[in-house]
Amino acid sequence: MAQVVVITGLAQGMGREVAKMLTKAGDRIAGFDMDAESIKTLREELGALGATHLLETMDITDRKGILGFRDRVLEKFGHVDIVLSNVGIGFFGPFEEIDLEKALKCLEINVIGAAAIFQAFIPAMRQAGKGTLIAMSSLVGRIPFPFESVYTASKFAIQGLVESLQYEVAPFNIRVAIIEPAQVSTSFAAKIHKLPDSGSPYRDRAKRFIDRDNELIKTATTPGQAAQKIVKVIRNPNPKFHNQVDFNSTFFLVLNRFLPKFMRDFILINYMNIRE
Description:
Blueprint: E1 4-8, H1 13-24, E2 28-33, H2 36-48, E3 53-57, H3 63-77, E4 82-85, H4 100-128, E5 131-136, H5 149-169, E6 174-179, H6 188-192, H7 203-217, H8 223-235, E7 242-243, H9 247-258, H10 261-271
Parallel strand pairs: 1-2, 1-4, 2-3, 4-5, 5-6, 6-7
Helix pairs in contact: 1-8, 3-4, 4-5
């Protein structure tokens, strides 16, 4: 049965692939992104498939804009079945040296952005007596990574946000789920990787971390492969709370669950090549 699916951050990467897969299956897509040119080309692609869609250029931090978008979606489609919060930015750097104003922006986009889009559509789902809210988190939402303290904090926050709200919306038959990829072969990491200054005591280890991360990305899950797993979650009328899209996420989460902390730390530090 065709569904109405709202996706934020759908101009590129996994979001774009999910939108195309759902459209080909007959679903109706609504979404927005800041990348105007990519929204334009996606609109053309979905239009060529004969799809009914509503795609806009907008910033996730535009609170009034989100409410206006919601109203236009409900006016056009009448209801919404799924909301996938896919907007997010990365943040890299030694905690001692990070710019906290920029860190605040990351938290605003990654955490409050998800909260805003969910909050906007919950009333309509509650009145309809059904719906699913899906948040794009990360492996680092449960396993903290060095040099990614702020990004890790944002994903831990998503975990807490969604775990908490699930109890509130469950009586209205609204389901919630989290997607937890480790690495996906996009330009996401490359956009944030920046070496500390030459005099930084963290520079050498940060460089080794970046080099290792770049090496891992070469064999990482592709956006298309990740999208296939995400679509399965969207299609599931009663999805699991935690959902992985790649082997590494599942493997490390199993280790995180059963191994003592000193062993988990040893594995992580060696895996990312940042031992002293």
